[in-house]
Specification:
- The chain has two domains: 79 residues, no CATH class; 111 residues, Alpha-Beta Plaits, CATH 3.30.70.
- It is built from eight helices and five strands.
- A hairpin with a 5-residue loop joins strand 2 and strand 3.
- The longest helix has 14 residues.
- The protein is elongated and about 95 Å long.
- It starts with a helix and ends with a helix.
- About 11% of the residues have low confidence.
Length: 215
């Protein structure tokens, strides 16, 4: 990266050497060594200097003794005895951020009352027009939703509905395993969304609490 910038007359920033963080395995030393040895020498202007490259004798010895093959096999041998980087999904699952945007849900207050006030801000802000809301007036003059549909086949999981809601009624849970066999099953109605919220209320409240400093 520094050589093309040098040819353009640009200066690069001085960076610290790469360090190994706690819990992260170090990069293979043989890979780094092979990379350094394969770099072409540069002249004083930073251009490749092929006159100082490997001689014909060096190339012949590498070809005869198959050093490149043994170097590659050594890298394979190093990686063979290291623990795997993968996990056994679905029996093992990686950590999720509290801000993960998955399946939608409607929340209730602790007394069982629905949080949604039918302001329709989520419907207005949805860029995919996946939300449909119908409402009616209550006896006290407030409004309640009679219909709250989300077409999950249209949803782009942008999180705008959750950010626009003034009462934290519509949220996106950390559930990402809701594949279906038919398209109709992905057309969520109000009852389905409330059911999702009831099942994941503790998790939703904990995630919102951990993220409230940044909202």
């Amino acid at each position: 990266m520094s050589q093309p910038l040098a040819r353009l007359g640009l200066r690069t920033l001085r960076t610290r050497p790469l360090t190994t963080h706690v819990g992260v395995r170090a990069f293979s030393s043989s890979v780094a060594r092979a990379y350094e040895e394969s770099m072409t020498p540069k002249d004083k202007y930073g251009r490749p200097d092929y006159s100082k490259g490997p001689s014909a004798l060096d190339k012949a010895s590498q070809l005869f003794f198959m050093t490149e093959i043994f170097r590659g096999m050594w890298i394979v041998l190093e990686q063979f005895f290291r623990p795997p980087y993968t996990i056994m999904y679905p029996f093992e699952k990686g950590p999720l951020s509290p801000r993960f945007r998955g399946e939608h849900a409607l929340r209730r207050y602790p007394n069982g009352e629905e949080r949604c006030i039918a302001c329709k801000l989520c419907e207005a802000i949805c860029p995919a027009q996946a939300i449909t809301i119908e409402s009616e007036a209550r006896m006290d003059g407030s409004r309640r939703t009679t219909r709250y549909d989300i077409d999950m086949t249209k949803c782009i999981y942008c999180g705008f509905c959750q950010e626009a809601c003034p009462v934290d009624a519509i949220v996106e849970t950390q559930n990402y395993e809701y594949a279906t066999e038919t398209r109709e099953e992905l057309l969520y109605n109000k009852e389905k969304l409330l059911q999702n919220g009831d099942m994941a209320e503790a998790e939703i409240a904990a995630n919102l609490q951990s993220d409230h400093f940044y909202r």
